[in-house]
Amino acid sequence: MSFIEVKQISKSFRVAKKKSGLKEAFKSFIKREYQIVKAVEDVSFSIDEGEIVGYIGPNGAGKSTTIKILSGILTPDSGECQIAGMIPWKNRVKYVKNIGVVFGQKSQLWWDIPAEDTFDLLKDIYEIPDEKYQSTKNDLIKKLNLEDIINIPVRQLSLGQRMRCEIAAALLHHPKILFLDEPTIGLDAVSKQLVRDFIKKINRENHTTIILTTHDMSDITTLAKRIILIGNGKVLYDGSLKKLKNQYETKTTIMVKTKDKLNIRKKGVLEKIKTKDGYQLVIHLKELSISELLTILSRKIEIDDIEIENESIDDIIVKLYEDYQI
Amino acid sequence: MKAYFTYFKLKFMSGLQYRSAAWAGIATQFFFGFVYVMVYIAFYESGEKQLPMNLHQVITYLWLNQAFFALVNQFHKDPELFQMVKDGTISYELVRPKNLYFMWYFKILGQRLSNVVMRFIPIIFVTSLLPYPYGMEGASNVYHFFLFLCSLMIGTLVVVALSVLYPIITLATMNEKGIVNVMLSIADILSGIVVPIPFFPLFLQKISKYLPFQYISDLPFRIYVGNVSFQFGIRGIFIQLFWFLILVFIGFSLMKRNIKRIVVQGG
């Protein structure tokens, strides 16, 4: 049995259906129609201890709902789930001692007071012994670069500063599992990098299992080896990022700078466009590899400069979403 | 237990940061206090006989209402808790290994105490200096004074147990208006904050006897001014304790039920 074992979890919400307009408003006042929205449907996966898993999908796919079920906040309509030998929503109070959660769009820090006061509160809530608390706190302060901001009332912090404090707050009690729901949302490049490095570090040092949802694909590429793709409440892909890339990265664009004229007729070259100082070639990677193309090119022409554009992971995800029609 | 106390402490600390709000609150309390006092003086001067309280008792009662308003008023809706329910920040409360009911209970208690600590001393001080009949007077005797302290403390526990019900109800209704406001209005009138209970028509007095609201502030203030006997006060304290337990039980079970059916809004 894996560390996290999720079996056929489903959860649906009842949403009041209302059309626009005064007449419709009156109608719905008397008789309301409801619509059942299936937020997650038959979701199953298992995760081993110490893994980092990227949980991705478009808006409204059911990512946050899954995270909320796994962290014991929501009770699913059906399905089973065992995490660290417990059912999250059944023994909520006991279970949540093992987990740390960061919801990127919400705040767990007290608005009016410095973050350190919230940390002290968490110390009492999680009943962390004094010594352990001090050493963990100092460690987190150092790693997340919090010295200068920990004593400022939270309302005066920037988003990036606040998010660093949020992450520290989620880790004070040494959770075995860390749920990160869009932890880099709205952060600038530097803060993002800092947060990513930190997440990697704690995964390596503390062997913390991390489940991460995000819309920022560079989060995934730097952090997660494995991704689970969810769309319309269903798991669509579960596997390594590399495999997904191989499967979807089929075309690549190459810009060649040259003064010579290029005649190329080879299977695999899909497009050849003359540009101001050279050519733009689009090749099909399954039929023609980049190195093959380079050999051909260097035989035929004098190359001044060459630029290979890798298809970004974002493009792959867009394609993936298109393929699954989500 | 320590964690709950820390909640209380933090809420208390954040409350103390709002000094200008406290001054504004004090000014409001003085304003309303004077309006009420004038009305009752005019009422007593019109020569109505057989009134249930004598004038200085009423005036003192009214000033106590104002001094401890932040502690005992019904219309206290902690914006943080309602906001939490509405925007989904409650998720964070639910990933804590503590009972949510008691976390909220101590938050509200801390907020109410921090509000009252900054307000009641200046009000009591200034109004005791006012000349007869406008000013506030001392307790009718030492025993009544201590009974008043006791009863005010338990009354506070009762009103917090009531206030915590409203965000719990909001967990199911998703809106803090509607039913909650209806409840608040009823509670407000029946608590004696608007008109002291002895001035109620008889049928309303009978009804409110069987409800918790008059055991929050009306009872301790009437003990203070000596409008009720010592025995009546003692009996009242037992009724307060009874309501405290009942309300905590209701809140605790309602919370348990509503958490199971919770829907977290907003992503």
Briefly say what this structure is.
The complex is a heterodimer of chains A (326) and B (267). Chain A is α/β, with parallel strands linked by helices and 326 residues long. Helices cover 35% and strands 29% of the residues of chain A.
DSSP helical segment count of chain B: 14
The top level CATH class name of the largest domain in chain A: Alpha Beta
CATH topology of the largest domain in chain A: Rossmann fold
Shape by Cα distribution of chain B? globular
Strand content of chain A: 25-35%
- Multimeric organization: heterodimer
**Largest sheet of chain A, described in full?**
6 strands, mixed
Mean pLDDT of chain A: 86
The rounded distance between the terminal residues' Cα atoms of chain B is 32 Å
Integer-rounded radius of gyration of chain A: 25 Å
Any idea what the CATH superfamily of the largest domain in chain A is called?
A: P-loop containing nucleotide triphosphate hydrolases
User: Architecture of the largest domain in chain A, CATH level 2?
Assistant: 3-Layer(aba) Sandwich
Strand arrangement, largest sheet of chain A? 5-6-7-3-8-9
Give the uncertain stretches of chain A in residue-range form.
none
Radius of gyration of chain B: 19 Å
Tell me what portion of residues of chain B adopts beta-strand conformation: under 5%
Residues in helix, % of chain B: over 70%
Tell me the number of helical segments of chain A per DSSP (H or I, 4 or more residues long). Answer: 11
Total domains of chain B:
1
- Low-confidence stretches of chain B at least 5 residues in length (pLDDT < 50)? none
Please describe the topology of this protein:
The complex is a heterodimer of chains A (326) and B (267).
Chain A lengths: L3 E14 L4 H9 L2 E15 L4 E5 L6 H8 L7 E6 L8 H4 L3 E5 L11 H11 L4 H15 L14 H13 L5 E5 L7 H18 L2 E5 L3 H7 L2 E6 L2 E7 H8 L2 E7 L11 E7 L2 E7 L5 H11 L4 E5 L3 H11 L3
Parallel strand pairs in A: 3-7, 3-8, 5-6, 6-7
Antiparallel strand pairs in A: 1-2, 1-4, 8-9, 10-12, 10-13, 11-12
Helix pairs in contact in A: 5-6
Chain B lengths: L1 H15 L2 H27 L9 H13 L1 H4 L6 H9 L2 H5 L5 H18 L2 H10 L12 H22 L1 H9 L5 H12 L11 H8 L8 H8 L4 H31 L7
Helix pairs in contact in B: 1-7, 2-3, 3-8, 3-13, 7-9, 9-13, 9-14, 10-14
